[in-house]
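Internal ticket - ligand job 238, adenosine-5'-diphosphate:
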Amino acid sequence: MSLLKAAGLSKTYGQGRLRVEALDEVSLAVEPGEAVALMGPSGCGKSTLLSLLGLTLPATSGELFVHGEPVPTRERQRAWLRNEFFGYLHQEFAIVESDTVAANVTIPLEYARPRLRRRQRLERARQAVDSVGLGWALHRRASELSGGERQRVAIARALVNEPGLVLADEPTAALDVATAYEIVTLLLSMRQRGTSVLMATHDPRVAERCDRILPMEDGRLAVEDTDTFPSTGRHDGA
Ligand code: ADP
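stdout (structure tokens):
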């Protein structure tokens, strides 16, 4: 069963003359333990698609399934899925510069249910930080770290809840080529932990290292994700 499945997802921003059809009937599936690149030029809808999949933006229409179940409509349950099922990575790292690495990485654990004790949260953060090779920086402030190290902190934060799927939006765009290579290696190594990765990028060097590339163009997948709906073309998530 697919980990995540989207059927006919569309998104329109604004109204009237300001109306932008950012996504048009996108269907795709992500399987457990695979890394998929979403590749296309700036403005083609990659960020919008990741936001809809990650439940941080409502779709105008379409359906979404996690482990074969329709995603809940109630905000409380959606918030739970956001925190437990997804990990998020951004181009600008989105970490709190004035906080320590440990404080940044424990953020998702603050919302974990059942609640974890402070000592458990710190231990989990320490393991995640170790796994990205930053054990030495656990109590350093994020502002003291390099760009590549900050993105590692963001990866540790995305991993700390052991998510099913990490959604990464241009995670290497702010990094030099060598650092970008290391960050992609680290992201792809998540597959060994059973975590899938869906990565938006406009860089073919990054995309080629993934298991599969979904090319995007003008709000649509340029090549239909045929594995999603092989013979019937059904868009009902069955
Ligand atoms: P990409 O991530 O591939 O650069 P985006 O998803 O950011 O693409 O944007 C897709 C289209 O939607 C673009 O035309 C962009 O200008 C438009 N868009 C994105 N966000 C908004 C918004 N909040 N309001 C209006 N239009 C938007």
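Auto-summary: Confidence is low (pLDDT under 50) at residues 229-238. Residues 13-14, 20, 22, 40, 42-48 surround adenosine-5'-diphosphate (CB under 6 Å).
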